């Protein structure tokens, strides 16, 4: 019932309690992704503590979603290692590599390793965007804007952020759009224009 109502967090809790690992994995993956993109990182991290490590490690996309949540906290190095393994796998599908580049970009940014971002951005640029997931477009713009700010090109950063289509109605973009707006604010602060 919870899954049909798209309440994946609750559905995953019930599946874990019932020891239905396939259902728990399926619902947890959707719960983690939903919680993370909405910026509910504390709740998402609590899921990482609840889900058995072998379930996470057994599904590459779930592992990357977990790594992305780790990247936005204090487990950047672990997240970066997971992302690099996926990015370097010659058999990985383009979607997996694209997700891995987003994870690697987040891990690099949150650990103040901005020098890694150009390589991550180049790797992601070589891949086709996933048309039904605008998150990747926003994430790519955020990385480009961050690099522009680091290079002192604050006007360029604002232009990159302004080129995004109006996506504010999408619940799955809350965190990415908040970062995008933060980068615009940082660009003004960098210029001394509070």
Secondary-structure map:
Blueprint: H1 8-17, H2 21-37, H3 41-50, H4 53-57, H5 60-71, H6 76-88, H7 94-110, H8 117-125, H9 135-150, H10 154-162, H11 174-190
Helix pairs in contact: 1-2, 2-3, 2-5, 5-6, 5-7, 6-7, 7-8, 7-9, 8-9, 9-10, 9-11, 10-11
Description:
The chain has 194 residues and is mainly alpha-helical. The chain is 70% helix and 0% strand. It has eleven helices and no strands. Helix 6 runs antiparallel to helix 7 and helix 7 packs antiparallel against helix 8. The longest helix is centred in the first third of the chain and has 17 residues. It is globular and about 55 Å long. The mean pLDDT is 85.
Count of beta strands: 0
**3D shape:** globular
**Helical segment tally?**
11
Rg (CA only): 17 Å
Q: Element order, helices and strands?
A: HHHHHHHHHHH
Q: Mean pLDDT, as a whole number?
A: 85
Work out the oligomeric state of the chains in this entry: single chain
| Portion in beta strands | under 5%
